[in-house]
Write a structure and sequence with these properties.
With 179 residues, this protein is mainly alpha-helical. The protein has one domain: GH92 mannosidase fold (2-Layer Sandwich). The protein is 38% helix and 9% strand. It has 6 helices and 4 strands. The protein has a two-stranded antiparallel sheet with strand order 1-2. A two-stranded antiparallel sheet has the order 3-4. The C terminus is likely disordered.
């Protein structure tokens, strides 16, 4: 990575050095150690998301009402696959931060409008992120594990017709969901 220009796309495919620096779903504990421990890891990952939100807000002001979610973001980009697991990586540092972040991303990047998906749905990839995150879990690449986050739906059912797997997810207490 060129430290002088980590957000330049010239040497990277479908992203920049900052995007790809977080794409280590197979060894998150190793990435945490590489960043100097849980505190430093969480701080840097949060900065990645904070800078993304600031970039989106600035772009939204220029787009006059259109969603900036579908356009490339030099920081976290909800519209491309290599960043989809990044919010769940916070679980290795602070699980409650994962819950708040995934909820925020659902509300910021997804809607019922024609531009309500961030980027190209690539055979349902963005829709799948929405469904999994709404259920409060996400599959960890290359494993049979699911990383947990907060459910943002009061009651949802998930099933697999081919294997017969079924689950109901219920959020206890009063529902305050808007997604």
């Amino acid at each position: 990575m060129d430290p002088a220009s980590p957000t330049q796309w010239s040497r990277w495919a479908e992203g920049d050095a900052l995007h790809w620096a977080w794409f280590v779903p197979h060894d998150v504990p190793g990435l945490v150690r590489l960043h100097g421990g849980r505190g430093a890891f969480e701080s840097r990952l949060r900065a990645f998301f904070d800078q993304s939100a600031a970039h989106d807000a600035e772009l939204a002001a220029r787009l006059r009402g259109l969603s900036p979610s579908a356009l490339p973001n030099p920081y976290y980009w909800a519209g491309n696959e290599h960043d989809l697991f990044a919010p769940y990586m916070l679980n290795w540092a602070n699980a409650s931060a994962t819950q708040a972040l995934t909820r925020s991303l659902l509300l910021r990047h997804y809607s019922h409008r024609p531009d309500g998906l961030p980027g190209n749905d690539d055979y349902g990839t963005m829709s799948a992120w929405y469904v999994f995150s709404s259920l409060g879990l996400f599959p960890r690449t290359g494993s049979d594990e699911y990383v947990l986050a907060r459910r943002c739906s009061c009651r949802r059912r998930a099933s697999c017709a081919s294997c017969g797997w079924r689950r109901a997810v219920t959020r206890p207490g009063r529902c305050t969901c808007k997604a």
